[in-house]
Amino acid sequence: MTFATIRLRTDRRGVAQLTLARPDKHNAMNAQMIAELTEAAAQLAQDPAVRVVVLSGEGKSFCAGGDLAWMRAQADSDRAGKMAEAGALAQMLGTLNALPKPLIGKVHGAAYGGGIGMVAVCDIVVAEQGTRFALTETRLGLIPATIGPFVLARMGEAFARQVFFNGKPFDATFLHRAGMVAQICTAEGMEAAIEAEVAAVLDCAPGAVASAKALCRALAGPDPRAAATLTATALADCWETEETREGIAAFFAKTTPSWRQPA
Fold this sequence. Notes:
Elements: E1 6-10, E2 15-20, H1 31-46, E3 52-57, H2 68-76, H3 79-97, E4 103-107, E5 110-112, H4 114-120, E6 124-128, E7 132-134, H5 148-163, E8 170-171, H6 172-177, E9 183-185, H7 190-202, H8 206-220, H9 228-239, H10 242-253
Parallel strand pairs: 2-3, 3-4, 4-6, 5-7, 6-9
Antiparallel strand pairs: 1-2, 7-8
């Protein structure tokens, strides 16, 4: 299958490179990218030649979250449409999260909103020094609902409460303390760090790796996808408030919503 918003290639060792490929949009996600990532994850899961997957982003950023046009379309959609889009995003994240191959995240530049959801479904994350992260949904009157179960599962409630609802940016060091980032590297050291993680996986029996990952997920508790209906409903409820309508309108008009404090 040919993809338009992502790239997928596998080398002779069985190392698959899954790359977000909308660099002009800082790899912001839209409906097409979400659908293509879901399809790619299904392909990778079924391909016996693939032993490990490296997830990265082209250009200056790993993933800037939701595409503006996609957000505008959701704002104009009815409740059923909003819940369907949330469900598609949850399905994509869940499919990557359940991938029976190790998923190594190569993160640089910025990861905002849904981009942090993508980080959360990686098994091992190597982040470049200076990478910026933020959950900015509440600045628009929205909530990080769909990605919430995946993010909470990785960083835990204590760390999530520090960043989940205040829109503050944070760095890779914070996520390293939270256990969500395994290693922080210079730009020059990223390739070697990723290769070291890949080599460690390739030294192990692929069937045992898949079984060990499945056991780890089972022991951790419920699948984050189990909360998809709850989170989609919470997000749809939020979209229907006057606060959110004001926040989204202000965002696109580049004005200040009434709750924002003057600088």
